[in-house]
User: What shape does this take?
Amino acid sequence: MNRPEDLREAWLARLLDLLPLRETRRVRAEVEALIADRVEATLAEEPGLGEAQAVARALAALGDPEGLAERLVDRPLHVPLATRRRFRRSLAVLYSCHLLLAVVLTAAGARESALPALLGPLPTESPLATLLAVIALFFLDAGAVLTFLWLTRRGAPAQASATPAPGPAGPPERRQAAQGLLLVALLAVILNFFVETIFSIRWRDARVCFLSEGVREVLPWGNLLLGLLAVRAGLVLLGARALAGEVLDALVSLLGAGLLVALALSPPLVSLPKGSLGGQAEATLGQLLDRVLLFVCLAAALYLVGRGVRRSARALRLLHA
Amino acid sequence: MADIDPRFEAELKRGVVQMVALCLLATPRYGYDLVRLLAQAGLSVEEGTLYPILRRFEEQGLLRARWDTAGSRPRKYYELSARGRAARDAMREAWDRTRRATEAAIAAAAPPAPDEESP
Assistant: This one.
């Protein structure tokens, strides 16, 4: 293992293992060139030194492969503590709400799922079936939280780019904007064509939306926000200055928070079809769903207010830069 | 001289190295050449720090890069693009502002001269 090429190959293998496949060829060529230059210079300065020692010095100058890989992909390779904490908290809230609703549906004697494939009564044929369903709910929610965290990740924050450059957006920002545009399109399709299907229950051979009239009247305003988000992504894609993006982002966040507060202030948010579950069970489930939606609206509004304030501050910094 | 936390110097140097590297890349240079020049200027930085910076600048379009295969082995040369020149100038302005502000703050914090102390 003391042969120079073995040292170099072992180090490169550790580095390339940590990088996306599409990057490996380029990084290998560039790092090999750096190593070769350093080795040549070291041997010229200290002719008595063996090549293996010179290679070891070159590798030491590159640091450990894990650290270099982190800096190259511009994001931590390990999940940061803050993300882990966010995951745990989100999962705890989602799973406990989900399980509680499933238990209520089971106790109320519901026979059909309230949200297809997402929310329904637990099987009661045997304790094992119930246990497996409870575990399955956990994995379903864990997957949902992971997907949500992935979709809302913000290019995980290269320290150097905490404040965007005042000039036009670069390729990474454009890639993020393209992803954002796709997400906006997906949300627009869901908002305009599938909301009433997703938030529905089967009742007398038909699916009936259980969102109240008030909520359904407010929802189309979401198109305005999605439109603004699309404009923001479009501006970034066209190479507009970062300031315009930050201003639009702040505006969308604050408008979104306003919309959610308007939703939360128009109870009831849920209106189950009369007689769908019968008496007490119907009232209990209605109230529970109402509280869950109210909680989600207020939590999201708080998050958006914080985001709006942060974006406004960044826009001001850019304006002064 | 009192010992200082090595992280202080490293953090101080992080931004400066990026600016100086852009300044040095007004003419085409390869990675190790840049390491050597920075060391000569008293800003020792190792390849493990400089290489990701060069790569990020290249991805941001601040640098143009080309492989030179004419020599004994291939070398990658980096050079400022038009966008890189604008970024370099912006960095230098930011550096000047920071330097002036720092010197003003230090001067303001300095103890008054003895003749100013007496009434």
About this structure: The CA atoms of residues 41 and 59 of chain B lie 26 Å apart. The domain at 8-96 of chain B is CATH 1.10.10.10 (Arc Repressor Mutant, subunit A).
